[in-house]
Design a protein that fits this description.
- With 190 residues, the chain is mainly alpha-helical.
- It has a single domain, classed as Four Helix Bundle (Hemerythrin (Met), subunit A), CATH 1.20.120.520.
- The chain contains six helices and two strands.
- It binds fe (ii) ion.
- The site of fe (ii) ion has 6 residues, from helix 2, helix 3 and helix 4.
- This is Hemerythrin domain-containing protein.
Length: 190
């Protein structure tokens, strides 16, 4: 797969993917807060979102790291460190859920409650990471555009596609950002 490093394309693709990531993070929070949630379902959902977030981190590292390093080396280091930290935290959360599964059923409730707190703390940190990327990293990319491209991008960002449009088979943007093997991938040709 070759990466399309056009800043306009990447900025819009990443912003759209981040909307979906936020929705998936909140979906796991909702599952963990549901009184009927079983440990098997929780383990499966955590494994799924771990793959999704890890794949996204790798894609950002591959597509953006060199561009960002030219603009702001400290920010590039921060992004790289964050991705490593989140990978380790996701591994820990999945291990925590697997530990709960091995314990007697009467202890599941207490351990799921702890997992709920730990997961939401992770979500809080991850949301700040996404926020930083969108407020700092994407504008840095946009500054590489010509005035005409910049205006076009601003107009596009004012009316971002909905999650359904990006992911659905019939949406105007279908195929530009699509789930693949449980992950979101950037389709890198225009
Ligand atoms: Fe990131």
């Amino acid at each position: 797969m070759t990466f399309n490093t056009n800043p306009l394309f990447m900025g819009n693709a990443i912003a759209a993917i981040h909307k979906t990531l936020r929705a998936e993070l909140f979906a796991v929070s909702a599952l963990l807060s549901h009184p009927a949630a079983g440990i098997d379902e929780i383990i499966s959902k955590l494994a799924e979102i771990r793959q999704l977030l890890n794949t996204h981190s790798h894609q950002e590292d591959s597509a953006l790291e060199s561009l960002l390093r030219d603009y702001d080396p400290a920010m590039a280091n921060r992004m790289e460190d964050d991705h490593l930290k989140f990978g380790a935290q996701l591994q820990q959360l999945c291990a925590q859920a697997s530990t709960a599964q091995a314990l007697p059923e009467h202890r599941h409730c207490e351990l799921i409650e702890r997992l709920y707190l730990d997961w939401n703390r992770f979500v809080g940190e991850y949301l700040l990471h996404l926020d930083l990327e969108e407020r700092v990293l994407l504008p840095a990319l946009m500054r590489q555009l010509s005035p005409v491209e910049s205006l076009a991008c601003t107009l596009l960002m004012q009316a971002p596609p909905t999650r359904r449009e990006w992911l659905g088979t019939g949406g105007a943007h279908a195929g530009r950002v699509a789930p693949s093997n449980g992950s979101l991938s950037l389709e890198m040709s225009r």
